[in-house]
Amino acid sequence: MSDEDCERFFDYLKASSRPLIYSGGGTIAADASEELRKFSARLQLPVTTTLMGIGAIDTQSELSLQMLGMHGTAFANYAVEDCDFIIALGSRFDDRVAALPKEFAPKAKAVAHFDIDASEIDKVKQTDWSHVGLLKDALNDLLNYADKKDISCDFGEWNNEIQELKSKHPLDFDRGSDLIQPQMVLDEINQLTKGEAIVSTGVGQHQMWSAQYFDFKEPRQWLTSGSMGTMGFGLPAAIGAQFAHPDKIVIDVDGDGSIRMNLGDMETVTTYDLPIKILLLNNAGDGMVKQWQKLYYGGRLSASDKTLHKKDFVASAKSDGFEYAERLIEKSQLKSTVKEFVECKKAAFLEVVIDPDAMVFPMVGPGMSYAQMITGDHIESRGEDPEVEPIDPKAMF
Known about the structure:
The protein is α/β, with parallel strands linked by helices. It has two domains: 3-168, TPP-binding domain (Rossmann fold, 3-Layer(aba) Sandwich), CATH 3.40.50; 182-353, Rossmann fold, CATH 3.40.50. It has helices spanning 3-15, 25-29, 33-43, 74-82, 135-148, 156-168, 182-193, 205-213, 234-244, 265-271, 287-296, 313-319, 334-343; strands at 19-23, 47-49, 64-67, 85-89, 110-115, 129-132, 198-201, 222-223, 250-255, 277-282, 324-328, 348-353. The strands form two sheets. A six-stranded parallel β-sheet has the order 3-2-1-4-5-6, with helices on both faces. Helix 3 runs parallel beside helix 5 (135-148), helix 4 packs antiparallel against helix 6 and helix 7 (182-193) crosses helix 13.
């Protein structure tokens, strides 16, 4: 990157008081996570990531806002609403992040976009500064320029605002319910694995809850199928990860819909004596489809309820050779069962019968802006949750 381009970038940065890095899967694909961390730390820039960008920055870092978008954290989405300079790294302003591009980061006075693909620049969101090339090299060039010119920025007030957002609007769920809440299960596993586990998922509500409630210290600990979303991805991805990292804890978090797509791979796990942990969150249906139907289609459940299905997943796991195959129904047994499951040295299968009506919040509906985000009953909103409106079919295509 030329000095002139570096200078222009820092002119925009110096003119801002609330900059925000929006990092996507391209950062990880470019092996630029270390450079992102250095860049963020050197200039004290907060970072939010897409679903595919999770792990590019340690999720427990003070500068991390975790995931943004349709099911991103409320504090990340509020930060996007408040920022005045958005810095997009290896991300493409897709519909799960910027369903209404003109209303994405509405207070941003400038947009910078780094991408390897020139066709992505200005395709969805108009930019004021852009760079096409290798992200690792670009960030190093900017870091070297900042050091050479002794550039320093004070975003202390903004970072204090970020911490306040994180404190006021954390993820939460119905902790008082008699039914097992899926978030509680994942939170318990996360406390045991401490951000060290490799986690794969299928596609659906369980995928979004996992993205919200697991911590990741490094890139490529999070394996999931974004974009079109391939149900059944989780189990074969976990198998590959366990072969590549035999000493790591590998957990496939799956749903009763997704796991059916590749259920035959259960036998592959035991054939090769892989100590994979398979967590099945069973809500007797296609939960994400049900959620959309309940919120946006008048509660008309079409082909999404599976309560008539007779599949015994535990019996299936045992028939495939899983010595540890259990079903958790009682909330009182959650902590002890989850601990036993995580600490099992062999392949382990745990089916958890969860609240069939549990939803993923926050939620920014399709074709809607962050100002229309629904936080649900247990995540504090900055104002009243907007009234849920039926989806305009034209907004879907």
